[in-house]
Amino acid sequence: MSTRTFRITVRGVFDGLSAAQRADLLADAAEHDVLHAAYTPEGHLSYDIAARTAFVFRFSDSGEEEEHILEATERAEEAAKAWLTERGYGFRNLRSSAEDLSQAPLGKRQRRAARSNGA
Question: Pfam families of this UniProt entry (predicted)?
């Protein structure tokens, strides 16, 4: 059985931040810039608190069955909630989306490489 790679995106909005919490997020903003966003097992948080209160966590996970994506999504949501709660950040409108990369359509270069390898 082959291992499937999942990309899970958890989005939400910071809620009820104090001035100190906002200052902390602003101080760490460079570390959480969307230009450095990556899907990682521990999750990567990105936001631009100066522009809006939205945030995005990006997680990578894996499983052997297509159904494992549901469990991976649940783990990602719980990890995002834990990170926010541990720091005392309020949040709302948490929603997730997940993609099984084994089901993702091939890009133009990938299709070309598959044709040349199969021919």
Answer: DUF6204
Phi, psi of 99 (to 5 degrees): -135, 130
**Sheet (strand 4-14) strand order:** 44-47, 54-63, 4-14, 91-100
Helix locations, the chain, DSSP H? 19-27, 68-86, 108-118
Number of domains in the chain: 1
Q: Given pLDDT bands bounded at 50, 70 and 90, which one contains residue 111?
A: low
List 55's β-bridge partners, or say none.
12, 47
Q: Residue 61 belongs to a domain with what CATH number?
A: 3.30.70
Q: Which of 73, 78, 39 is nearest to 56 (CA)?
A: 39
The whole-angstrom separation of Cα 72 and Cα 8 is 8
pTM (two decimals): 0.84
Residue numbers of the domain that contains 47: 4-118
Pair of tokens at residue 65: 């069955």
Give residue 84's Cα distance to chain centre: 14
Strand 44-47 and strand 91-100: pairing? unpaired
